[in-house]
């Protein structure tokens, strides 16, 4: 049985949410324009995580393509989750 790319991304986001929230981060899946830092401009990450001393931009990469938005990461850590197979 094959899992769809959307289902795989959703499952990955759920797993990431559990992981980050277990470490007291605020996790925002598919953040709205108002929740995205201005320096990201038109870039739309899959999720953001805010901890006491750390802020993380999360992008899920599924085989077949990565968004090629160039961004200047200012005081953020970029977390790329690369999924090997569907």
UniProtKB/TrEMBL annotation:
<dbReference type="Pfam" id="PF18743">
    <property type="entry name" value="AHJR-like"/>
</dbReference>
<feature type="domain" description="REase AHJR-like">
    <location>
        <begin position="1"/>
        <end position="63"/>
    </location>
</feature>
<dbReference type="InterPro" id="IPR040902">
    <property type="entry name" value="AHJR-like"/>
</dbReference>
<protein>
    <recommendedName>
        <fullName>REase AHJR-like domain-containing protein</fullName>
    </recommendedName>
</protein>
């Amino acid at each position: 049985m094959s899992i769809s790319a959307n289902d795989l991304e959703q499952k990955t986001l759920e797993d990431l949410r559990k992981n980050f929230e277990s470490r007291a981060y605020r996790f925002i899946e598919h953040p709205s324009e108002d929740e995205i830092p201005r320096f990201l401009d038109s870039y739309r990450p899959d999720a953001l995580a805010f901890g006491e001393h750390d802020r993380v931009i999360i992008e899920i990469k599924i085989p077949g393509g990565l968004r090629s938005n160039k961004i200047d990461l200012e005081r953020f850590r970029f977390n790329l989750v690369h999924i090997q197979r569907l």
